[in-house]
Model the fold of this input.
Amino acid sequence: MAVLTVEKLNKTFKGGLFEKDRHVLRDVTFSLPEGQTSGFVGSNGSGKTTTIKCLFDFIHPDSGEILFFGSPLSSPIKTRIGYLPERPYLYEFLTGMEFLRLHWNLCYGSSLKDFYERAHEALKKVDLFEAKDRRLRTYSKGMLQRVGIAQAILTRPDLLILDEPMSGLDPDGRAMVKDILREEQKRGVSLFFSSHLLQDMEELCSHLVVINRGQILYDGVLSSFMAEFQSLERAFSVLKGREESHG
Amino acid sequence: MAKVWALARTTLREMLREKVFFVVILIAVALLGLSFLLGALSLAEQKKILADFGFLAIQVATLGVSLFSGSYLLAKEIEKQTCLLILSRPVSREQFILGKLLGVVILNTLLLGALAILLSVLLGVWQESQLWLSFFEICLSLWFESVVILCLVICFSLIVRPVLALGAGVMVFLLGHWLGDLAFFAEKSKEVFFIQAVRFFHWITPQLYRINWKSAYFLEKGIPLAEVLWMIAHMTGWVLLLILLTNFFFRRKDIV
Done:
C-alpha cells in the first residue's frame, strides 16, 4: 500500500493588480511506497516546498487529491506523520525539552504517559540530550535542525516528511542528519524528503520523485532511473531538457 | 481543550518576554503614580482624580497589550512560519487561533487583575463596601473592551499588514467611544446623510461609549443591572462574531 498518494494536484497563486497568476503545480501526481525512503528532487523554485505544504493543507490546492495511508488528512492521520519544514523557525524561548512537550501535548493532550521515555530517546538520537534544558535561542543552526527532527520522530511516526532537512548545514551536521535518517529507515519508517542535492538522494533513497517547474518528470525506483541515465546529474539534465523542449 | 490550553500557555510565556509588555506596564504604573500625586494636590477631589487616572491606567495597559500583541500575534506566526510545525500536528486552525487568543486574554486578565488590586488599595475600596460593585463592574467593562479590541485587531491582521491592523483597532476604539456624541450631533444637524451614516456605524462598530463607566465609580448602587447585562451580551456577541470571522479568513489563508 502507498503511504502517500498525490493525484493531479494543481495550484495557482493569484497575481496582484499588475502581476500575472503563477501556475506553480501542474497535475502533480506521484505515490510513495510503504517502508521506503523516497527523495523529492528538483531545482530551487520547482515546486517542492509548495507540494509539501499542500500535503498538510498549509496551502490549499485548487484541485487534486491527497491520501495518506489511503485516507484524506485528518487528526488521527496527523499523529502518524512527522514533519520538518524547510528552515524550521521554532519558539526560541522554550528549552529543548519544553519544545518537545508542547508537541507531545498537541498530539496526545495533557497525558504525559510515555513522554519522558520518548523525548529522551529522540533527544539522544539527535545527540541533544545534554542540551535538553537549554533555551532554543542558544542552539546553533545545526542543533535547531536536529531538535526539529527530534520533534518529528518524537511520536514514532509511520511516515516522516522532511523539507530540505540538510540545507544550510555544515558537513558534520549533514552527516549527522543522514545517520538519523538511516536509523529511522532501519525502524521501518517511510521517509519522504526533499532536496536539490542529488548526492543526498543517491545515498539515502530507493524511490525518487523528480519535479521541475511544477510538473512531475519521474516517479519510480531510483535504481532503474540510474540504470537508464548512469548518473543522477545526467538524468536530471536530460529530463529537464526534454520537458523544456516539450514546453 | 488540552491542545488549546497548551498553545495558550506557550503564547502567554512568549508574550511575557515581549518588551512592549513591560513598556505598557511602565506606562500604567506611571499613570497610577501620577494619579496619586495629582490626588494629593487636591484634598477634596483626591479620590476622584485617583479613580479617573487609575481606571485610565488599566484601560491604557490592557488596550496596549491587545493592540500591540494582537496585531502581530498571527502575522508573526505566518511570517516566521512557526505555525507550520504546530498545524502539522492534530491541531485545527480554529484550535490554533483559540489557543493564541486565550494566551493574550489570560495575560490581559492577569495584568488587569494586578492593576485593579493596586488601584483598590490606593482607593481604599475595602473601607467602602458599597463601592465594590461599581469597581468590579468598571473592571469587567474594561476587560470586555480589551478582548473585543484584541479579537478585532487579530481579525484585521489576517487581511492587512500588522501596522494597519493596529491602526484599524485604534480607529474602531475611537469610533466606538465617539458614537454617542456623533449620534447627538447627527440629530442636531438634521442632515439625513449624517444620521444614516451614524446609524450605519452603530451596526458595524462595538458601542464602546455605552460601557465607558470609568467615572461611575462613585455610584453607590453600582451600574444598573440591565446595563451590565446588555454590556455582557453586546460584547460577547462581538467577540463571537470576530472569532468566527477570524477563523473564516485564517481557514482560507495559504501559509506560503
